[in-house]
Specification:
The complex is a heterodimer. Chain A folds into 2 domains: about 5-45; about 50-150, Rieske [2Fe-2S] iron-sulphur domain (Rieske Iron-sulfur Protein, 3-layer Sandwich). In chain A, about 20% of the residues lie in helices and about 35% in strands. Chain A has 1 helix and 10 strands; from the N terminus they run H-E-E-E-E-E-E-E-E-E-E. In chain A, a hairpin with a 5-residue loop joins strand 3 (about 75-80) and strand 4. The longest helix of chain A has 29 residues, at about 10-40. The mean pLDDT of chain A is about 85. Chain B has 14 helices and 4 strands. In chain B, strands 1-2 form a two-stranded antiparallel ribbon. A two-stranded antiparallel ribbon of chain B has the order 3-4. The mean pLDDT of chain B is about 90. The chains are: A alpha+beta, B mainly alpha. The interface of A and B includes residues 1, 28, 35 and 42 of A.
Chain lengths: ~150, ~350
């Protein structure tokens, strides 16, 4: 069923048809691809539990001791200094996001993955970590130790 | 464009590309007033490809397990951007695929395309239909909602009624005596690994057979062609039929997208194994005619239990239907008349029982 007359590509009517067809196909492709691309981006998980959490009970920690707890969706570390002071910090190493630990022998925080060291205020003192750990506020309410995110002043 | 022709030359030097695609260039499709029925198989294939694609997308967020499945589907539908759309398309395409597969099957029977030499094509198609129903049955449970939970309970219970092997089969399907999280894990495995593998293999065989034998011409048309060769009308597969097929796919996609967006698939409530079954428990529509039949059969037929009778009848009917092409040449015209009668009866029985199932409470 060959056409008797083959219109040239420059025929204006043909150009209009081509434009409509091409534009339509392009528009549908965009409308299929766009939702798929958006679907591929995982939604942001809300920080469950807000910005306050009960980290531990009074008496659970001894001086020069520590505990990892869940703060929102990330781990945090609560520690008691040798002088009996509570400190709470993010436990996510600022280098490559390993979970840090308290070293009793060194009396400061250490990340096992790449030998990063932080002091008790979370400052990066040695090794690869580029930034200090985020520090949280600690309140003792009754027999509960409550850790809260520091409010931006 | 220069790049494309260079690529073609590169391929041609290595694989003799021109020889490979030569047969495709020569392939033709018969043209007659019933050719439109040819599109149903292609549309079914297209919907299967949509299923593979959206299924992979759903796998990015879905988690099997009694404690997580429902929540993860809820998460997909409420939190993931366009997640509701992807899931809705997956559910709608699944149902449309079964529908087009059934229509494809009946058109093959009524146009008598199953006849020699295409018996094996029919057989592979029937197996594909059973696999598609397996996909539907296993996928139905995955969101772990109340409706699916009880439908699976009933469905696997029916399997348990099969004489001799029934109980072991049921335990195998359920992963234990009851429908639990273990069933969900199993069905998930069937749905995303076992069935897709088998189906892909069978589709390749089915397509290869269609390719090998070419498309069937309905007998009425065939006779006329033999009388006068001038009436032979054919269309080139590339690009004429191919472009028409693409257009059919495009329309199918439009229908699918509209259905999925306007009537999003619901999730229902989370399954609770210890809650009583709610009213209106029913399987997917394509199992409805069997479900309704089993409901109608009395508890005791002669000395056999009602369910057993129903299952045996459906088993025999399914087997006869699967072997349909082999009756075509039996006893002159008698086999052919039997096939037509069986097809008309099957189609009207399924239709009536399905409608009845939805109307009867």
């Amino acid at each position: 069923m060959e056409d008797a007359v083959t219109p040239t590509r420059t025929t204006p009517r043909r150009r209009v048809v081509e434009f409509l067809l091409g534009g339509g196909i392009l528009a549908s492709i965009v409308s299929f691809v766009y939702p798929v691309l958006r679907y591929l981006i995982p939604p942001r998980i809300a920080d469950l539990g807000g910005d306050e959490v009960v980290a531990s009970k009074v008496g659970d920690l001894k001086p020069n001791g520590s505990k990892i707890f869940r703060f929102g969706s990330r781990p945090a570390i609560l520690l008691m200094t040798a002088t009996g002071e509570y400190r709470a910090l993010s436990a996510v190493c600022t280098h490559l996001s390993c979970t840090v630990q308290y070293r009793k022998d060194l009396e400061h925080i250490w990340c096992a993955c790449h030998n990063g060291h932080y002091d008790l205020n979370g400052r990066n003192i040695s090794g690869p970590p580029p930034r200090p750990l985020e520090q949280f506020q600690v309140h003792v309410r009754g027999d509960e130790i409550v850790v809260a995110r520091k409010r931006e002043a | 464009m220069a790049f494309l022709s260079q690529a073609r030359i590169w391929l041609d030097e290595r694989f003799h590309w021109a020889e490979l695609i030569g047969p495709l260039k020569k392939k033709t499709v018969p043209v007659h007033k019933l050719s439109y029925w040819y599109f149903l198989g292609g549309i079914t294939l297209f919907l299967f490809m949509i299923q593979v694609f959206t299924g992979i997308l759903l796998l990015l967020y879905y988690r099997p397990g009694a404690n997580e499945a429902f929540e993860s589907v809820q998460y997909i539908m409420t939190r993931v951007q366009f997640g509701w759309l992807i899931r809705s398309i997956h559910s709608w395409a699944a149902n449309l695929m079964i529908l087009t597969a059934f229509m494809h099957m009946f058109s093959v029977v009524f146009l008598r395309a199953y006849r020699k030499p295409r018996e094996l094509t029919w057989l592979s198609g029937m197996l594909l239909l059973f696999l598609a129903m397996g996909f539907g049955f296993s996928g139905y449970l995955l969101p772990w909602n109340t409706l699916a939970f009880f439908a699976t309970k009933v469905g696997t219970e029916i399997t348990g009624q099969v004489p001799v092997i029934g109980h072991s089969l049921m335990v195998f399907l359920r992963g234990g005596e009851d429908v639990t999280g273990a069933t969900l894990t199993r069905f998930f495995g069937f749905h995303v690994a076992v069935l897709p593998g088998l189906t892909t293999l069978l589709i390749l065989i089915h397509l290869a057979l269609v390719q090998y034998f070419g498309m069937s011409v309905p007998p009425g048309v065939d006779v006329r062609l033999k009388v006068s060769a001038s009436e032979v009308r054919e269309m080139k597969f590339f690009p004429n039929f191919f472009l028409r097929e693409l257009m059919a796919w495009y329309i199918a996609l439009g229908v699918l997208g509209a259905l999925a967006a306007i009537l999003p698939w619901e999730l229902g409530t989370k399954a609770d194994p210890f809650a009583p079954a709610p009213a209106g428990i029913r399987p997917e529509w394509y199992f409805m005619f069997m479900f309704q039949t089993l409901k109608e059969i009395p508890a005791k037929v002669w000395f056999l239990e009602g369910e057993v009778v129903g299952i045996l009848l459906f088993g025999i009917a399914g087997l006869v239907w699967t072997l349909l092409p082999f009756f075509d040449r039996v006893g002159g015209g008698r086999g052919r008349r039997f096939i037509m009668g069986a097809a008309i009866f099957a189609a009207s029985y399924m239709l009536t029982m399905t409608v009845y199932g939805y109307l009867a409470k």
